[in-house]
Amino acid sequence: MKTQDFDYELPAEYIAQTPLEPRDSSKLLVLSRKDGSITHSVFHDIGNYLHPGDLLVVNKTRVIPARIYAHKPTGGKVEILLLRKNADGNWLALLGGKRLKAGMHLSIERGPQVEIMAEEDGANRVVRFSQPVEKFLPAIGNTPLPPYIHKKLRDPERYQTIYGKVAGSAAAPTAGLHFTETLIRSLKSGGVGYAEVLLHVGLDTFAPVSEENVEEHPIHREWCQVSEETVRQVRATKRGGGRVIAVGTTTVRTLESAARDVPNDEVIRSYEEMTDLFILPGYPFRVVDALITNFHLPKSTLIMLVSAFAGWENIRSAYEVAKEKRYRFYSFGDAMFIR
User: Fold this and answer.
1) pLDDT (tens digit, 9 = 90+) per residue, 239-269?
2) Is-cis flag, bond preceding 284, omega within 30?
3) pLDDT grade, residue 320 (50/70/90)?
4) Which of 30, 59, 108, 301 to pair with 319, CA 20 to 30 A apart?
5) Quick count: other Cβ atoms within 10 Å of Cβ 86?
6) Does 79 lie in the same domain as 59?
7) Within a domain: residue 127?
8) pLDDT-based confidence at 144, cuts 50/70/90?
9) Residues 252 and 309 placed together within one structural domain of the fold
10) 143, 159 contact by CB (below 8 A)
11) Cα Rg for the chain, rounded, in angstroms?
């Protein structure tokens, strides 16, 4: 497969710069995988497309204020963007600044001291904080928005899902931004099940694939978790003939990671580790039956994932229709329900 095959044109004015209020007022494009047919709706009416016995699975991660500003001993400014906490307590971070070498110490106003422990690819560095940085983040950290959003976010909570509760992501699982507490209560009262998984989203999720051949792309790794309770709910849904509906590509990646090397009659197992699953067209989905997602960047691993689920021709046609109908794209944009 060629990376160029997953490209499409998107004028900048289609990229949503601010979230809509209320959350569930965004447009909803409903795409049938069987015949490519498209229906237009509004997100607060998504219950019209869900059935009693279906299981809605969400990613309960919460975005941390991962952008920190520090200074070198010479006084030069350094931007630290936390990407992932390692098992040894050190952090993988993206550093902005010049001549940032291993062994250098950085200072943060009202925060812990920082030592650069190792130099990784590009601007990535492994850093160690003199104290656990998590307790300082509410005071020293800033919410990192995707690079295509240029307007300041007045309320940082609008880049959090209403059900996010486990801090650890550098980016939001944005398909979930459309849900309100009222909408979730309504779906539950209509017989739709509700389950949670956890995947901490890294900024690599936004990185376009630069390799000519898709298979040569080194897929980013993310930590995820599926509990025994969610395993029980998924298995019961499958036995009962319901659909497992993933909210977002991160949920898809988590559920399908937990299904690898599992006997067909078990469907899925509990899971807690880093995943390197790269979902491309031709992938045999084991768990996910339907998907709620946003509109994704050209040549990204996310558009490849939804193309694997729905077929690239269906996705390309749906995106063209979405542009004609003035849908809003990317993180703060409108939604799709692929069934």
Assistant:
1) 999 999 999 999 999 999 999 999 989 999 9
2) no
3) very high
4) 59
5) 11
6) no
7) yes
8) confident
9) yes
10) yes
11) 20
